[in-house]
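User: Hello, can you help with two protein structures?

Assistant: Certainly.
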Amino acid sequence: MQFRHGDGDAMTSTTQFGRTFLVGAAWVNPRSPGTYIERLQLLNPNVISTDVRVTFLFTDGTSESATVRLGAGTARTVAIDEHQVIVRRGEPTAFSIRVDSPLPIAASFSHYDLYLRGGWGTLAAPLGLSVPALAVI
């Protein structure tokens, strides 16, 4: 959960893990750093490390990927609004995010807008089969 200006964002916990996820409706303006705060949260419940591919799918039809290393049994937050893939674009950018992992993981996303003073958080939408938490943990 995060709080800004008296507003809080939270999301439900997950009981399912998967290998592919999608997040839509992401938007950042690199010309106003710190105004649009977007975070991708990743959790690796496995006993071994894994490399997760995060692909940014832009509305102009282009895409770019980055790799995030997740240690065994660890979580990591990726600051999407500060990521070089986004900052390099240099202009207001709408996009979706695809997350791919060779091992089952959990993924969530939060967006906070200091201009409109509001935000939201959600679990990423799994694509394909999901795995119950009890089978992984």
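That covers the first. Now for the second protein you mentioned:
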Amino acid sequence: MQLDYRATWYAFKTTTKDLMSTLGAANPEAASLLVQIQTNAAFLDAKWTQWLKEHSASSQYAIHDDYLSSLHGDLRVLRKLKKQADDQATLDALREVALDLQIKGDNCRSSADGLGKEIKVKVHAKAGGTAAVVPFD
């Protein structure tokens, strides 16, 4: 598992560096969001690396790792931006990834074990004018 995380953090570093030289060079807001993403990814990298070294035999974060899957989703969004022509869509996507990593970082900072805990949310959706509560993990 440690190698999966190392590869993921490395991918954040290289992907955001590439985007900084293209999107960031042309758009100051994009550059600022990319710096925020890089900063939070580096922080999380350090925390996860430390935790995994100290808990190498732990099964707490096991086979299907939703956290790692979520990080991969953020990476997919960033990688798609290389082909995105719509500036507003690009900024919206960068804001979403930056916010996700900020939430992960804040959760990690306030956690007793240094990683953060699962966050449960409820999504209220309307279908045909009728409100429904849909659990979302």
